[in-house]
Amino acid sequence: ISGGTDNGTGDYTFAYSNNMNNQLYSCSGHIIDLNPRIASVISTATSSYRVTYNNEANDDRDVANTNDINGDLA
Known about the structure:
With 74 residues, this protein is an all-beta fold. Helix content is 0%, strand content 55%. The strands form two sheets. The chain has a four-stranded antiparallel β-sheet, with no helix packed on it. A hairpin with a 2-residue loop joins strand 1 (3-8) and strand 2 (11-15). The chain is elongated and about 40 Å long.
């Protein structure tokens, strides 16, 4: 990850240092929080991916997070 963009509360785009071969790769968001939260990857591109974090009522939330990415680099 070369950097991140805060798109608003609970909405982030993470950019890659090296592009992926295509946008058909897997990534997941993980939340570091004691409260119930939902991480959703909403889009992938060869150069970045976007993830949102919400609570059970679907309200946007900023949370500490980690992410996994699996795929082929270009």
